[in-house]
Amino acid sequence: MTAHLETGPRLDDPDALYEALMAAYRDLPDAEALKLSAKLVLLLANHIGDAAVVREALAIASGRTDG
Amino acid sequence: MPKTYENPRFDYRRCADQQPGAVAHHPVVVVGAGLVGLTAAVDLATRGVPCLLLDDDDTVSFGSRAICFSKRSLEIADRLGVGGRFLEKGITWNRGKVFLKDREVYAFDLLPEPGHAYPAFVNLQQYYPEEWLVERARELGLTEIRWKNRVTEVVQEDARVRLTVETPDGPYAITCDWLLACDGARSQVRRCLGLEFKGQVFKDRFLIADVIMKADFPTERWFWFDPPFHPGQSVLLHRQADDVWRIDFQLGWDADPEAEKQPERVLSRLKAMLGERDFELEWVSVYTFQCRRLDRFRHGRILFLGDSAHQVSPFGARGGNGGMQDADNLCWKLAAVLEGTAPETLLDSYDDERVPAADDNILNSTRSTDFITPKNAASRAFRDAVLELSGQQAFARRLVNSGRLSLPWGNAGSPLSTPCDEPGGVALPPGAPCPGAPCPGAPCPDAPVERDGRPDWLLRQLGDGFVLLLALAPDTPLPASLAALAREVPAIRPLLIAPAPRDAGGLPLLVDGQGLAAARCGLVPGTALLFRPDQHLAARWPAFDAAAVRAARDRALGIVSDQERKAVAS
């Protein structure tokens, strides 16, 4: 069976994760912030390891589908 | 400027076709005596097909141009009789390194595997193979090369093609049955037909500097992103023959090509890179590139090969290699049509097979270019993210793309191939890999074999005709109908292969002592493989069946059986 992107709530403490993300970006100039996002995307995409799931996320993020 | 190589000059000679009022007819005309046109002319000559080869210049390539020749191109050159010269003169390399700023982030090894006549790549300036192919064409004696003969007009009529050729003595007209347009990215033939050349232009400029130096750099492909000596851009270093090194500097779109070509400017860039070592400039060129192709490569009696049909970025060595493989694919088909053994529609399969091959080259070269030349801040961020991660994170190394090097196209789904599940076997789902490798359509892998006690190579034994390769155990009897097939269809040459010498009933026997041919071609006792004249696999069976072999050869020649014709008609 093909895996699907999980979009239901899965994080124990979403506020803490959001805070960690904001802290990482807070003092970065735009170019560095873009690069940080890119690294995160690449690391997480590799962790997911299923291109179809990543493409699903890409479609939702680009507004091509609402999931 | 070149110092290590002097271009030969080939004399223009007035010929009988130029007499006023004469319109001579030639069966095959090849336009462009570059790497691809010469490969095609020599390939045709090895098949006994004469041709007239027209070139607007009087020498071989000026400057090194294509420098990386892939294994498949070397095997084609071997079939044409010039392969050994690449090995003697060229530089064999296997390793590549990618640097970010001043540190190495990634290295690859093309993993040389023993038991192949040719390595993965040989680097060599393009003028050498062109010169050898001119010599080879003369040796074979079937090619008339006319230098300083520039094609200016091409008109396709119903039954022939009419050409106007400009020379130092003025223009003349000829006609031909088949025209092979090998006249490069700015093809005049393509322009005359008014064909659209569609694709993508990349907004970047690159400086090629060929430098002569005695350097202790290893024989490796080195690629830098953002090096200290050329900040913000990329640089490639690659070795060629004669102590010449190819250095490519990415310049960006705003660079002024004329100013960048000035020796002082080039020398200062080189000094920043190479330090105070001794070097001399051999050749300099500034280029931009595009990835584009014609919709179709066959237009009636006119066939486009190489850069006239498709253009790629240089990253990945897919230009010259793609062109040589076009010639390899087309020439046996044209020879079969001229000989009358195949219908003209066989030439449509050149489109079926080489258009997807060009798309694969364009896809890979576009991806490399997108990596090397990011289009905006976000794509640069992703590119730099990959490079920065690649030092520590193994997964990111596979994303670093400084060129995905040319591999032969497998012709998956070609109409000339007999699918593995036919006949009689269990039907495979569409797109499923066939049970053995290589799949029909793909080129035969090479392997060492022995014939009559002498070592040789499998590909050399395949040669340039249809070959039925039949794997035998040491003691199984020969299939009874094999001798009958050999008698009835002499154009299919049977070749037996076994792990040890055995009775071959008078047929040629290859001994696969190391078992490498069996491993690479997926042979078990009984396996029968039918190869096409370009050494690509046409069909694979678990057991020999004479009728199936004949049908597969017909299919590979584009011959539609009465039965199939009826099926289509109903």
UniProtKB/TrEMBL annotation, chain A:
Domain of life: Bacteria
InterPro entries: DUF2783
Pfam families xref list: DUF2783
Name of the featured protein: DUF2783 domain-containing protein
Phylogenetic lineage: Bacteria, Pseudomonadati, Pseudomonadota, Alphaproteobacteria, Rhodospirillales
Automatic annotation (TrEMBL), chain B:
Cofactor(s) needed for function: FAD
Protein keywords: FAD, Flavoprotein
Domain FAD-binding: 27-361
Database matches in InterPro entries: FAD-bd, FAD/NAD-bd_sf, RIFMO-like
One of the record's GO molecular function terms: FAD binding
Pfam families (UniProt xref): FAD_binding_3 (PF01494)
NCBIfam families (alphabetical): PRK08132.1
Protein's name according to its UniProt entry: 3-(3-hydroxy-phenyl)propionate hydroxylase
Organism in which the protein naturally occurs: Tistlia consotensis USBA 355
